């Protein structure tokens, strides 16, 4: 085992000594969690928060749409597109969750190389990024869809203009998915690469 503070080469992929003698208690707790656990948490956060954002947006839009449709039934059909935009937010989370799940391979050793820890942290970060961005994107699309339904009920000419605003609100979640995929492009957890033993210092 090697002290991570003494690793000079970024190519080193041997096991790292994350003992409490080198770190504080909180950092020691984080460092001792298996990278596959970080990856699984990232997958869960990505999907769960994306569904929260999608459901929140649908709730906001549907409440206004059903209320306005009582007075103007003509708005029911074309304003369903606002619900579809909200649903797309959950699909973004599913896409990243599937991609991250494919990057966690089977492992036979309890000691993970340093590259696996990096991959776990990157997958966790990507899950946080996509999850939270999709929450706010879903809320944005939901509020815009609500305004679109109410505006369309009053003035049909406002529908297309409000629809453009919804498209830009939904694009916020798509940006997060793109960045999340880029963050985890070259990462994987498991025995997909040869194990590199810890370097032994040469005698002087």
TrEMBL record:
It comes from Dictyostelium purpureum. The keyword Transmembrane helix applies. PANTHER family: V-TYPE PROTON ATPASE PROTEOLIPID SUBUNIT. This is V-ATPase proteolipid subunit C-like domain-containing protein. Residues 41-100, 124-183 form the V-ATPase proteolipid subunit C-like domain. The chain crosses the membrane at residues 47-68, 80-100, 120-143, 163-183. It is a multi-pass membrane protein. It comes from the Eukaryota. Gene3D superfamilies: lithium bound rotor ring of v- atpase. One of its GO terms (cellular component) is membrane. Keywords: Hydrogen ion transport, Ion transport, Membrane, Transmembrane, Transmembrane helix, Transport. Belongs to the V-ATPase proteolipid subunit family. It is found in: Membrane.
């Amino acid at each position: 085992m090697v002290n991570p503070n003494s690793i000079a080469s970024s190519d080193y992929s041997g096991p790292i000594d994350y003992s409490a003698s080198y770190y504080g208690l909180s950092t020691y707790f984080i460092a001792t969690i298996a990278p596959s656990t970080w990856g699984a948490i990232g997958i869960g956060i990505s999907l769960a928060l994306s569904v929260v954002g999608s459901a929140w947006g649908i709730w906001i839009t549907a409440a206004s749409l059903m209320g306005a449709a009582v007075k103007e039934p003509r708005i029911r059909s074309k304003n369903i597109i606002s619900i579809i935009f909200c649903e797309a937010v959950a699909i973004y989370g599913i896409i990243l969750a599937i991609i991250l799940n494919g990057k966690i391979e089977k492992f036979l050793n309890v000691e993970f190389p340093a590259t696996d820890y990096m991959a776990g942290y990157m997958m966790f970060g990507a899950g946080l990024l996509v999850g939270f961005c999709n929450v706010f994107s879903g809320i944005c699309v939901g509020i815009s869809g609500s305004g679109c339904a109410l505006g369309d009920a009053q003035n049909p000419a406002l529908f297309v203009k409000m629809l453009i605003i919804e498209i830009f609100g939904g694009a916020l979640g798509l940006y997060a998915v793109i960045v999340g995929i880029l963050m985890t492009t070259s990462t994987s957890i498991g025995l997909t690469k040869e194990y590199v033993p810890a370097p032994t210092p040469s005698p002087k």
